[in-house]
Write a structure and sequence with these properties.
With 260 residues, the chain is α+β, with helices and mostly antiparallel strands. It has a domain at 159-248. 60% of the residues lie in helices and 8% in strands. The protein has a 4-stranded mixed sheet with strand order 1-2-3-4. Helix 6 packs antiparallel against helix 7 (225-251). The radius of gyration is 21 Å and the shape is globular.
Length: 260
C-alpha cells in the first residue's frame, strides 16, 4: 500500500547501522510544513523542529529495519514527505513476525522518548529537578519537541488506520480472527476511525479549542487542519481499497473453465 518514491538527483544518501538511507527532497518540505507553527518564534526554531522530525522518523524506520534484519532479511530506508518507509528485500512470513515488525517502529520512538526524558532527569541538560526549563529556550524547545513527537506521533501511528503501523497490525489480527474477510473488516475499521478523526480535527479547528472541548483531558492532543487533511487522505485510501475489494469479489470466478 506504500510505494517507494522515485529517485532524484537531489536525494541525500548514506548508511546507518549497515542500512542504506535515502532522504527524498520532499521530506524537507513536509518537515517544514509541519513546523510552520515555529516561524513566529524565529527561523532557528524551524531548523530545530526539522532536525527533531529527521531524528524521530529515522529512529522509527530503523526500528522496523532492525526487526526485518532479525527475521532474516535486510531493508532499505526512505524518508519521504510526512513520513518514511522501511522496504524489506524479501517478504517476511509469519503473521506474528509481521505484527512485531509493525510495532517495532513506534516502540523505537517510545524508547528514544524514554532515553531523552531519563537523561534529562539524570543530568538536567534541559530542565531543573522541578521540571522548569533552564538550558535556554532553544535547548528547551529541542527537548520538548523530541518528547512530544516521539510520544504522540508514536501513539497516532498505532491507530488502526491503513497504512499506519496500527492499521497493519489490525489487518493481521483481523485476518487471524476472520480469515479471508479480515482485510475487508480491517479496512472498514480504518475508514470509520479515519473519518472520526477528521470530524474531531475539524471541530477543534472550528471551535478554536474553546469551551466546547473543555470536557476533554488536557493531555489529549487537539486536532489541526493538518490532521484533518492527513486522516481525510487516509480515509479516502481505505475507501478506495474497499472498493477494489468489492470489485474483485464481484468479478472473481474460481471455477475451472469447463464449469463456467
Amino acid at each position: 500500500m506504500l510505494v517507494e518514491p522515485e529517485r532524484t538527483a537531489y536525494d541525500l544518501r548514506f548508511r546507518l547501522l549497515g542500512f542504506p538511507i535515502r532522504i527524498h527532497p520532499l521530506f524537507w518540505l513536509g518537515a517544514a510544513l509541519l513546523g510552520a507553527f515555529t516561524l513566529d518564534m524565529g527561523f532557528q526554531y524551524l531548523l530545530i523542529w526539522m532536525a527533531v522530525v529527521l531524528i524521530s522518523i529515522l529512529v522509527h524506520e530503523l526500528g522496523h529495519a532492525v526487526l526485518f534484519r532479525w527475521f532474516g532479511t535486510e531493508a532499505a530506508i526512505v524518508l519521504y514527505v510526512f513520513g518514511g518507509l522501511a522496504i524489506p528485500h524479501a517478504f517476511v512470513t509469519g503473521r506474528w513476525r509481521r505484527i512485531a515488525i509493525s510495532l517495532a517502529g513506534p516502540c523505537a520512538g517510545f524508547l528514544l522518548c524514554a532515553v531523552v526524558y531519563l537523561s534529562n532527569q539524570q543530568f538536567h541538560w534541559a530542565s531543573n529537578p522541578e521540571g522548569f526549563l533552564t538550558a535556554g529556550r532553544a535547548v528547551g524547545f529541542f527537548y520538548l519537541a523530541l518528547l512530544w513527537v516521539n510520544l504522540y506521533w508514536g501513539l497516532l501511528n498505532l491507530l488502526p488506520v491503513v497504512p499506519l503501523d496500527g492499521g497493519q497490525v489490525a489487518r493481521e489480527l483481523c485476518g487471524l480472527i476472520w480469515g479471508p474477510r479480515g482485510t475487508r473488516i480491517a479496512l472498514q475499521i480504518s475508514l470509520v476511525v479515519a473519518v472520526s478523526l477528521v470530524v474531531y480535527s475539524l471541530v477543534c479547528v472550528a471551535t478554536a479549542n474553546g469551551p466546547a472541548l473543555a470536557f476533554l483531558p488536557g493531555w489529549l492532543p487537539r486536532g489541526t487542519i493538518f490532521t484533518a487533511i492527513l486522516f481525510g487522505l487516509l480515509a479516502y485510501t481505505s475507501y478506495q481499497l474497499l472498493q477494489q475489494l468489492r470489485w474483485t469479489d464481484a468479478h472473481w470466478d474460481d471455477r475451472v473453465p469447463w464449469e463456467r
